[in-house]
Write a structure and sequence with these properties.
The complex is a heterodimer of chains A (about 290) and B (about 400). Chain A is mainly alpha-helical. Chain A contains 13 helices and no strands. Chain A is globular, with a radius of gyration of 23 Å. In chain A, about 30% of the residues are buried. Chain B contains 17 helices and 14 strands. In chain B, the strands form three sheets. In chain B, strands 1, 2, 3, 6, 12, 13 and 14 form a seven-stranded mixed beta sheet that branches. The longest helix of chain B has 27 residues. Classes of the chains: A mainly alpha (about 290), B alpha/beta (about 400).
Chain lengths: ~290, ~400
């Protein structure tokens, strides 16, 4: 049965309207607003060209926010990827209680991020469990707690992020591992290839599409880190990240929508460049490893 | 149809029409105004509702629609409502926000409503921007010094002891601090947004610090008195400070682990509500010229400039802020500082020595500059305090950076 063109449009209309109103319009609108001096409370705004972008490039707070964001991205992605892949490899084997561990590791991914952030805020505070554990192994603990120290606050949030994310990516890797035919491993074994060789010659190359997905999605998520910062430090102690900067300038201190929109677009460009670079690297035919 | 039936039918029509006209007429005559307010606590909200009900009884043509806001996102909601050109008729505003909204024309100028009776209210200066008044003071707030008298006694200070100078405060806090490993002399705030600066400002102002020069041309955040104030605050923090959130500090204070805290009237409410057993002493802020200056802020009621019912809105504001309704509200909220001078003379305030401390301190308090950029200036000051206490550790350098930021902000 062929649908008429008008019926097809009618059926697609709810999605088209939602897409237009809640995605396309804000994206285009914020791009335009980024070239104006629009402040939420000020009904009159004017076109100022690249001024917001020029000012952002010399704004020490924005530079600091970008630095923190890069530290967050570069500091979490390798750990999240390696740990979740390791967990997936372990849980891909058959052993009693495997289902329990799979579910257990996945639980943080379906728990509210706000709840997790609040629990970790308590764990990281002065006299909290993390401080106690650190003291037990002879580490120096920040005087006022891990989240109240410029040297540790961002890293403490990053550690929480890794803990929280590995379960989800483990599941993604597990689905990738399931797609690799067993015959390949059997053939490799017959040929005398050990487990390490099998991993580098079969598993890793065939996991490339999954790896690409994990890296791109995790990078985008890490570049957009916000809720953890909002709940745990409010951007204090050198934890201001790019999205928190956008929120702060746009909705809390200045209501400078033009300036905040420009900052959001700089972040968009960075994420796009980063994602394309990852895509190109992993699309190469020659092996990376 | 006979004649009697015809009459009955016509009578029915007349009755229905009359009822319809009455209904339409009454709704057309009634004005509905909307009030956005922040008091959602189960002790206070019923009082707000009863004040509104009394207002509606006294003004039969005016209906009031209440809308609750929370402190976590109320400011953002107000901003978005005002930016949309709609929003409520009456707004409860924190004193720090008035200039920001007034500057962009979102608040109605209520200067014409100022009468001789207005002198009977405190706090007008916080609502005056560019020579015009944009809000009416409702409940004001300041900070006083609370002490655990029991700990002071254990530390060797008799019951008449009052910290007059900063050095008295430091000396007694140090003595308390020496009482045990789990005892601290001073409750020092962790960097919580919109809170930390309120704790620092009493030291800043009592040391002679100022944000701007009188003519508003110069930023004085890095001047010697300002640095002196931050050094004093930092000394307490470094030497005898128990660092935690405001709630955490108050918990420790009420548990008898902290000698001094700088706090507001909500602490009195908490002590009573939780039936805490603490030998509480309340002092005016110490300073070189005792008493020192504390922080002043408050809740104000403003009329949205986009409101079509400004007169009705102002009527509601006058009703809420009347001395008798302020007393009702303050009793429920256990707030210490009604803006009405007449309300301050009520037994409720005069019979309680701690509330009296608040009322006295209010007269010796200073509010932040009424500046549309205050929220960002405040952020710069908080950053400086945070840097001096938890970061670089250098008050002068931290304040120099804050001063530079404020200068750049004002230059734009």
């Amino acid at each position: 049965m062929r649908l008429s063109r008008s019926t097809a449009w009618l059926l697609a209309l709810p999605w088209v309207v939602t897409f237009g109103a809640f995605w396309l319009f804000p994206v285009v609108y914020s791009l335009i607003v980024g070239f104006t001096d629009y402040q939420l409370l000020d009904p009159q705004w004017r076109w100022i060209g690249w001024d917001n972008y020029r000012h952002l490039l010399t704004d020490p707070d924005f530079r600091n926010a970008l630095e923190n964001t890069f530290i967050f991205v570069i500091g979490t992605i390798p750990f999240t990827t390696v740990i979740s892949l390791g967990m997936a490899l372990l849980l891909n084997r058959k052993f009693p209680g495997r289902g329990f561990f799979r579910s257990g590791f996945f639980v943080p991914s379906i728990t509210s991020l706000v709840v997790i952030a609040l629990i970790f805020t308590s764990l990281y505070q002065r006299g909290g469990y993390v401080a106690m554990l650190a003291e037990m192994v002879g580490l120096t603990v920040p005087e006022y707690g891990f989240l109240q120290d410029r040297g540790t606050a961002l890293y403490a949030i990053m550690a929480m992020d890794v803990w929280m994310s590995v379960g989800y990516y483990m599941l993604v890797f597990l689905s990738g591992l399931k797609a690799i035919p067993d015959e390949l491993y059997e053939a490799a074994e017959i040929s005398g290839a050990g487990r390490v060789r099998q991993f580098f010659s079969i598993t890793l190359p065939l996991l490339k599409p999954t790896m690409l997905f994990v890296l791109v999605i995790n990078s985008i998520k890490s570049f957009q880190v916000f809720i953890e910062i909002f709940v745990m430090t409010k951007g204090k102690f050198d934890t201001m990240t790019a999205v928190y900067f956008v929120y702060d300038r746009g909705l809390t201190t200045g209501f400078a929508f033009g300036y905040a929109s420009a900052a959001a677009y700089i972040l968009l460009v960075i994420i796009a460049v980063f994602s394309v670079a990852q895509f190109l690297m992993l699309r190469r035919r020659t092996p990376l490893w | 149809m006979n004649f009697a039936e015809k009459v009955r039918r016509e009578m029915k029509r007349i009755v229905v029409l009359t009822l319809f006209c009455l209904l339409v007429g009454s709704s057309a005559m009634s004005t509905t105004i909307e009030w956005w307010q922040f008091w959602t606590d189960s002790d206070i909200k019923p009082v707000i509702e009863s004040i509104v009900a009394d207002f509606e009884r006294a003004n039969p043509g005016i209906q009031v629609k209440l809308h609750d806001l929370t402190w976590s996102n109320g400011h953002e909601k107000i901003v978005i409502a005002l930016a949309s050109g709609r929003g409520p008729d009456v707004l409860e505003l924190g004193s720090d926000w008035i200039a920001q909204f007034a500057d962009k024309g979102h608040l109605a100028d209520i200067s014409k409503f100022i009468t001789d009776d207005s002198a009977a209210f405190q706090g007008w200066s916080m609502a005056t921007y560019d020579g015009r008044v944009y809000a009416k003071p409702w409940v004001l707030g300041t900070r006083v010094l609370f002490a655990n008298r029991g700990l002071l006694r254990q530390a060797g200070f008799d019951d008449d002891f009052v910290p007059i100078q900063y050095v008295d405060l430091l000396r007694s806090a140090q003595a308390i601090h020496r009482l045990g490993d789990d005892i601290y002399g001073w409750g020092s705030n962790a960097p919580e947004k919109h809170r930390l600066y309120k704790k620092f400002l009493p030291f800043f102002w009592s040391s002679g610090g100022r944000v701007f020069s009188d003519d508003g041309k110069y930023v004085l955040l890095a001047a010697m008195p300002a640095i002196d104030g931050l050094r004093k605050y930092k000394q307490l923090h470094d030497e005898v400070g128990y660092v935690a959130s405001q709630r955490g500090i108050e918990d420790a204070f009420l548990d008898g682990k902290v000698g001094y805290v700088l706090s507001g009237d909500w602490l009195l409410k908490r002590i009573q509500k939780e039936n805490r057993d603490i030998e509480l002493a309340s002092f005016l802020i110490p300073g070189p010229k005792f008493p020192g200056l504390s922080f002043m802020g408050g809740e104000f009621l403003a009329v949205n400039n986009a409101s079509e019912n400004k007169d009705a809105a102002m009527k509601l504001i006058d009703f809420i802020t009347s001395p008798e309704n302020q007393i009702r509200f303050c009793r429920a909220a256990q707030a210490a500082n009604p803006s009405s001078l007449a309300a301050q003379q009520d037994d409720y305030f005069t019979s309680d020595m701690h509330l009296q401390t608040f009322i006295k301190q209010m007269n010796l308090s200073r509010h932040p500059p009424v500046d549309p950029d205050w929220v960002r200036i405040e952020a710069a000051i908080e950053e400086a305090v945070e840097d001096a206490l938890f970061g670089s550790g250098y008050p002068a350098e931290a304040l120099r950076k804050a001063s530079l930021k404020v200068r750049q902000l004002k230059a734009r």
